[in-house]
Amino acid sequence: MATVDLTSFAMLITDLQWGSVMSFVAWIMIGLVVGLMGSKIINRASHSLARDVLLSIFGAIVGGFLSNLLGEQDTAGLDLYSLAVAAVGAAVFLIAYYGLFRRKFLSMR
């Protein structure tokens, strides 16, 4: 039976990979915060908080990923630019969703 030494496994994770994981987690957290705040501001009927949070998390991940693609290549991990773009991406996704589908939901009530 083969055993895996965790110290050798930990050495396989480079600083760049660890920074990428931390960026991803930070984007999710930013999307969560923006989704909660945006749901209270935009969705005054307080319906579907989970949808608003999921949309914002998705927008933050897309925004953060795009900022890493278009940003400087030598920065690894968390940087202020990718966090700001993730917050803007989360807000844009939430606003675009309500801009596109608000009439449909208002007519259903």
Key terms:
single chain; disordered C terminus; 109 residues; 4 helices; elongated; mainly alpha
Description:
By secondary structure, the protein is mainly alpha-helical. It has one domain. Helices cover 79% and strands 0% of the residues. The protein has 4 helices and no strands. The protein has helices at 6-12, 15-42, 49-70, 80-108. Helix 2 packs across helix 3 (49-70), helix 2 runs parallel beside helix 4 (80-108) and helix 3 runs antiparallel to helix 4 (80-108). The protein is elongated and about 50 Å long. Mean pLDDT is 75; it is low at 105-109.
Largest sheet: none
Domains, number? 1
In angstroms, what is the radius of gyration? Answer: 18 Å
Helix content: over 70%
Query: What is the number of E strands?
Result: 0
What is the averaged pLDDT score?
A: 75
How many separate helices? 4
Order of helices and strands: HHHH
Alpha-carbon distance between the two ends = 62 Å
The global form is elongated
Oligomerization state of this entry? single chain
Low-pLDDT residue intervals, each spanning 5 or more residues: 105-109
The structure class reads mainly alpha
Strand fraction: under 5%
